[in-house]
Amino acid sequence: LHGAVERYEQVLQLLPGQEGAVADLVSLSKQEEVSEQAATLVRPHLEDHGRWQDLATVLDARAGLSQDPEEVLGALRELAQVRHEKLGDAAGALEATMKLIDQSPAEELANPLQAAMRLAGELDGLDALIDELGKRANDDSRYPEVRVAIALSAAYAASDYLGDPDKALAVLVPLLDAELADLSVCERIEELA
Question: Are 29 and 35 in contact (CB under 8 A)?
Fold first, then answer.
């Protein structure tokens, strides 16, 4: 497969944007052993020719196949952006953003959580998103600081956007039961109670 990618590189040097080569490289980006090489080669051609759906396919493949956590996060961020801004696919962007939330460390959750709220609002799905975030906040396989960050964000959305303090409390109280509630969680619970 490496030889095939190299041949396509030669074709694209002679005929930039050649349809067959670009399509084959998009397919090869989904193959684990040549994904990175094919994606690196084909991306400029996809961007130059506005082939956003194919770029989304390549980004999704890299997010799923890369062993580099930073590349995965970058691919998911870019995938969400391409789906939303170039393809007008808010649901697809939300899906990528939720994957980003699942992969992000606690200190990098603020932006994806805010983006998820905006996208869910655009889709009239904020209530369902808060429920989904509540499940993630109660998932004890996640790091405690990640659970707290997700819960606080979901509770904020429930109380301040939906005007539903009971829903906010339903997200936060399980953190007390799990003995994960820090000062910010306790203060928020007190405000809502």
Answer: yes
